[in-house]
Specification:
279 residues; Rossmann fold; four-stranded parallel sheet; two-stranded parallel sheet; 12 strands
Length: 279
């Protein structure tokens, strides 16, 4: 989802690119100007050859493999790592724990480079959250208001980032590696928005109307599990609903000032996604 966009941005800026992945078929589907190399993060012994000769590495897979990538790289070569703002959650979250451990290891390594912490990523055809919500809403006729239950009426906030804005940040982090420092940089949308607005913006991009129904989180959790048990679709799963009770609000001044990227609004980004039929 992200790597394909980073590749396009690197090529657009005139860089020579090596693409690394474990599927020869998927690598062959990428831009032919890039050099494909096989490498499997679950098999660290394959990585040194895959990364040989790189002058910088943009690592956009799961952060849990950061140490393996770092160990496979030549000394002094910069590494840009993508983590997640999930590290800021106060809820029990094994995925967040894995990212925290990986970023701590990168900090200890003292390798030149940067850590980017993207929020919810949307905009590509493969994105889970926005794409799933758009598919759910698009099943309903335009004339009928669609009831969407949200914990607390969707008053908590989220700050999604468009995948193309993230790709620009990754490439800028490579190009500015000597000037931006090693402090983690949050990559998010321009402002936090309430989940109710998030849903309404998705509906508006499709020409639909929604009716936000405030529901206690415990009831929503039970309902979501019940739908899953009988094979019926739900736009959110239980874990996502619990995370929707936390406010996500981030300062993106470093994204703007250090990386030179001004993120697009969610309304603009989701309209772009719908126009491109990427859901």
């Amino acid at each position: 989802m992200t790597g394909r966009r980073v590749l396009a941005e690197l090529l657009a800026r005139g860089h020579s690119v090596i693409t690394v992945g474990r599927s020869a078929e998927r690598l062959a589907s990428l831009d032919k100007r890039a050099e494909p190399r096989l490498g499997d993060f679950d098999r660290p012994e394959t990585l040194p050859a895959a990364l040989a000769g790189a002058e910088a590495v943009a690592y956009v897979a799961h952060a849990k493999h950061t140490q393996a990538v770092d160990a496979a790289m030549a000394p002094g070569v910069p590494l840009v790592v993508t983590g997640s703002v999930r590290i800021f959650t106060k809820l029990p979250d094994p995925a967040a724990d894995a990212v925290r451990a990986a970023l701590a290891a990168f900090e200890r390594s003292q390798r030149p480079g940067s850590i980017l912490l993207p929020s919810m990523i949307y905009g590509a055809a493969e994105d889970r959250n926005v794409g799933r919500l758009l598919r759910f809403l698009s099943r309903f006729p335009k004339a009928v208001p669609i009831p969407v239950p949200l914990p607390g009426g969707g008053r908590n906030t989220v700050q999604p980032v468009h995948v193309d804005d993230l790709a620009c940040c990754v490439v800028s982090a490579i190009e500015r590696v000597g000037t931006i420092g090693r402090a983690p940089i949050v990559v998010a949308g321009p402002e936090p928005i309430a989940y109710a607005r998030f849903v309404r913006e998705c509906a508006a991009a499709l020409g639909r109307r929604v009716w936000i129904v405030p529901v206690p989180i415990a009831l929503l959790d039970a309902g979501t599990r019940m739908l899953g048990a009988v094979g019926l679709p739900s736009p959110f799963d239980a874990t996502e609903l619990r995370r929707a009770t936390e406010d996500k609000a981030f300062d993106v001044s470093a994204m703007r000032d250090k990386l030179g990227v001004a993120p697009r609004s969610f309304a603009e980004g989701v309209q772009q996604k719908v126009r491109s039929h990427a859901y």
